[in-house]
Amino acid sequence: MPRSAAYNDPDSIHRLFEPDPLYFTFFVNFCYLVDQEVAMARPLELIDSLVAEGKEGFTFDEARAALGRSPTATANTLRRLQDNGLVDRLGRGRYAIRTLGSLHTSTTTDDLDLAVGATFGDRQHRIAYLSALADLGLLSHPVRTITVACTTQVRVPAISRRPLRVVIERAETIHLEAEPLGHSWRSTLDRALFECALRVDLTGGVERLAEALASGAAGADPDRLSLLAKVFGPRGLAAERRLASLAQVLELPLRLAPTVGPRQSIVRLDPRDEKVAWVDDTFRVAWNITADELRAVAGN
Questions:
Q1: What would the CATH number be for the domain defined by 16-102?
Q2: How is the chain split into domains, by residue range?
Q3: Distance of alpha carbon 8 from the chain centroid
Q4: Sign of CA dihedral 207, 212, 218, 219
Q5: 260-290 per-position pLDDT tens digit
Q6: Are the C-beta atoms of 278 and 290 separated by less than 8 Å?
């Protein structure tokens, strides 16, 4: 058909202007990518500015001020950053910037001190009990609940989607045998072992206490443990006897020598369990599990 005739044929005109499906798909995808780049440009500028200021964490209000946007728009921006693994939400209105080597991981996994420090702020606190044992590398299995000792109650149920347990403690002992750790404080090896023997209920049972003691006995200091026992009075002395009994029966390289008279009251290895499998007469400790069973758990 001659070209001039094509313009008089409606079907021919339709074919001339019919869009190419491949071109249309490419165009849509290109527009989507451009839109995504534009959408991420400002959030990335926020991250860059915070990093330039030396900040590792920030609040919702700080992000809103930096972005100059409405609360809804700011929330959407932070959600986008979370979805891309660039920030981690620690709790209500608190965020942490993820470092390049830890993108798409939780702050509590890589930077427990940063997450806890951002949550507790200026409050006197200490990463303690099982959380301290796990952070010190004394446990073979991960601990999900974050346990923090603090002088005041903190009504925060979770940090980075991990349950939070707060144990109230006196200001006089909150940093006793504790060490600064980045943005927070953490129990030392001796304090972590001692406090878990003091509060077996916060340890998850004597099995975990025995595992941690077997891993850390060589680095523990008997004198420091004895000092802690004296500070905490009768309950502290009972905790020292539990540690001494465990170390002796499991033949660990830790020599504790608490004074125990033949008529002294017996203490339970696990105060929650009334079962008595046998009694260690040396330290007057009633075990709720046999030594062989505990050796198997502790890997000793």
A1: 1.10.10.10
A2: 16-102, 196-300
A3: 75
A4: negative
A5: 988 899 999 999 999 999 999 999 999 999 9
A6: yes
